Amino acid sequence: MSAESPDKNEHYLRVFRRRFREWRGQRPFWAGLLTVLGGIPIAYFPYASLKFGAMTVNLATTAGAGSLIIGVLLITLGLTMWFQAVVRVFAGIAAILLALVSIPIANFGGFVVGFLLALIGGALAVAWAPGVPPAEPAKPVARDGDPDGAGATDTHAGPIINAHGWRNSAG
Q1: Domain residue spans in the chain?
Q2: Where is the composition biased (Low complexity) (predicted)?
Q3: Is 46 in contact with 64 (CB distance < 8 Å)?
């Protein structure tokens, strides 16, 4: 490998990490992750069986199907936030509403854990906005006697103010 081909010398984990960071920055990643994590306990707890020694505790309720639907919808909305960032506001509002509906239907919203995760994830999705691309560097401004701006070193178009707070006559 030569020094002129740095991409070939780069470790594949570093490349994967950089690409994942770029992918993550273009969408509401944490909102989607929290929404998916909020849907899991909401869908899981009504069908769970806990064992304490010889005793088995079933958490099955009459609203098991409703909690399964809410949990699967929250997981789907979280994945939608990742892969279709354009509909993030809809997905966020729907996640908030489903989290609120899960309180009476799905064992207090997955014992409040799923409710809080889905509620925060939905709020993050609604609040997220795509980043602004970096601004282009300013072009030099032409000064008196230099019509093409070739000798100009000033990059702002405002008046020039000296150290005493007075405006220069050139600006």
Answers
A1: 6-127, 135-171
A2: 149-159
A3: yes
Q: Measure the CA angle with vertex 120, ends 115 and 121; round to 5°.
A: 100
Which residue shows structure tokens 């470790």? 11
Token pair, residue 163, equals 């150290």
What sections of 84-166 are H helices per DSSP? Answer: 88-105, 107-111, 113-127
Strands 55-58 and 49-52: antiparallel
The separation between the first and the last C-alpha atoms of the chain, rounded to the nearest angstrom, is: 54
- Note the pLDDT tens digit of each residue in 95-139: 999 999 999 888 888 889 999 999 999 999 999 998 777 777 766
Task: Report the C-alpha gap between 141 and 144 in whole angstroms.
Answer: 10
- The amino acid at residue 28 is P
Q: Are 32 and 78 in contact (CB under 8 A)?
A: yes
Is residue 164 packed enough to be buried (19+ CB in 10 Å), middle (13-18) or exposed (0-12)?
exposed
Q: How many Å apart are CA 167 and CA 171, to the nearest integer?
A: 7
